[in-house]
Design a protein that fits this description.
Beta-Lactamase, five-stranded antiparallel beta sheet
Amino acid sequence: MQISESSIPLDNGFNKSPSELEEEIREGLSEVGIEHVTLVIMSKNKSPVFKYIEGISDRISISKRVTEKLDCYLASASQEEKGQVYHGRDTIIENRIFDHEKLSIVESDLNFYSIYEDLSYRYEIVIIFHSIVALKPDEFRQLELICNITIAWANSWIAHHTMLLHWSRYSEPQTSHLAPNLTKSEFDVLELIIKGLTGSEVAQIRGVSKETVRTQIKSILHKTQCKNQNQLISRFSQGQWLMNYTARSTYT
């Protein structure tokens, strides 16, 4: 279901935590008659990176059996047209599932609803729903809206974790490349700077002139491609400047 950007109100006051959003989605699914939901986000090599397999009501208990047959469910859902909610009968899981509320046996196959869609960064999502009774047309439309919300959430989840991955790579100091470029004196000065010492204090500790320290700092900034001393401290402080014994031995 496509929604134009112009139709999205920007001042609707939406401000819900992930737990509140999950609870409202669960309530919405329960209201339309969904008994169980399975949500899987997969990477480009089809490996699951996120799985949510939960019962919505206490009427049936199939989480264990769905987990055991998860590959079959994913394969079945991925054969359908992307972006469309498919409805059929579940032939993967055995019938005769106990209905706790009615104290009876479900004699026919469960209703099976699924949607398979592409996500950002070449990820994919499969959502599978089970119900005892087939959904009415208005209930089916409500399920489609819930799928749209869930897919949007999945895209935001992928974007957030992708950003964290790129950030961790960006913020990692390239010590293996930087260390050989620094002389032993420059490395010693760098260690003192990231501890918070001023140029004068570094000169006093090392027993050299302030001008010598100033020259060494300029050289360090050039070799580490830092614009100023604050950037140098920010990049290599707080435990990010880690030099093992092997790297240190370069200077001895």
